Amino acid sequence: MATKIRLQRHGRKGYAFYHIVIADSRAPRDGKFIERIGYYNPNTNPATIDLKFDRALYWLQVGAQPTDTAKNILSSQGVLLKKHLLGGVKKGAFTEADAETKFQDWLDTKQKSVKSEVSKLLENERATTKAKLDVEKASNKARAEALSTKRAAAAVAAAKAAATEIAEIEGTTEVEELEAPAIEPETPAVEPEAPVVEPEVPVAEPEAPATEPETPVVE
User: pTM for this one?
Assistant: First the structure.
C-alpha cells in the first residue's frame, strides 16, 4: 500500500491549522488516515510545528512519500537530514557517532538561527508597538491641543457675546431715556373758589329824633 505524509486541514475559515498524518495515497485529503504524527499551525510567527520525530523518520524509511508542504516541514525539523545521515552510515561513509555529531551540530545551528529569528521578530514587534504608541500619543496630544483651542475660542466667543448683549441692553436703555417724550407732571385741577360772601350787616334805620315832651305854656 502506497502511503503519503501529508497535511489534513482543520480549523475555521480564515484560521486553518493542519494535522500531519500518514494516509493511504488513494484516500481523500481530509478522510481517514493511518497515523497522526504531528501538528502544524501557520497562523503564528514563526509557524508552530509539533512533530513526532522518530515516527516521521520511521515512515520515511519504510517508503512513505511526503507532499511538498510536508517535505518542507520535515526538512525544517531535520528529519530528512537524519534519514540521509543514517543512509550514509549504512553505506559505511561514516560511523553512527559521526552521523550523530553532524546532526547535533546542525540542530544547534538551527536552534540558534530560530532564536535569532524570534529575537529579531520580537524586537521588530516592540519597535512597531513603540512607533504605534508614539503616533497615538502625538495624535492624542494634537487632539487635546485642538480641543483646548476650541474651548478657549468658545469661551472668548461666549464672553464677546455676553459683552455684546450687555452693551446692547445698556444702549437700548440709554436710547429709551433719550427718546422718551418728556411727560409734564399733571397739574391737579383746581376747582374755582366759591366767592366769599360777607355776612350782611343789617342797616340800622336812623333813630327818630327824640321828641321832647311839650311843656305846657302857662299863661
Answer: 0.58
